[in-house]
Amino acid sequence: MKKLAIAVAVAACAFSAQAQLSYSTTGTYLNSIAGNNVPSFSTGLLDAQISTALPGTLSVTFLGKEAGHTNLFGVYGTTTLEMLNNIAVGTTQQVQVGAGALPFRFLDQNDSTGVPNGGNSPSAAQGSYVIFGTRAQNGDWSPLKSYGGGTFDLIIGFNDGAKVDADYDDHVLGLSLAPVPEPGTYAMLLAGLAATGFVARRRRAA
To answer: What is the pTM assigned to this prediction?
Structure first.
């Protein structure tokens, strides 16, 4: 009985562990990023690829901007989401996405400077994005997840093509994923629950 209960718990934990977006650590680590109208993050990971292990619903929340250009954040998954940086702060939209690399792109609509997920900046800083966060003393990079009363899986910021600054606050967004379990995950959970119930009934009968 205990083994079955443990198996069910492990399956549930395995699912919950995949609830957040993941990112590669192959991007360039940046120091001294300071925004104006948006959070003054001190560090970031430049153009790191963002992925998810499971399909699900991606929620995108607009957190602010300091930009003269109109910038677009688009996610082109199972459905499509396009969010400009001229909307009300706190606006949240949702889009259905599949497993794998998140199919998003930033685009400066004034000069067509942009970058896809995991892409490289066409110049030193213009048209690139960062995942905001901090670096622990042991060298591990961990994303900052809270801002403006919200909690997110990741917070990302775009630096558009206007060659004025490089503080990555021209389109700042919070991303959160609510995954949909794959059929195998459901089957594992149901089998464990059924087996647990069967053993419980036999014990009561005995």
So the answer is: 0.78
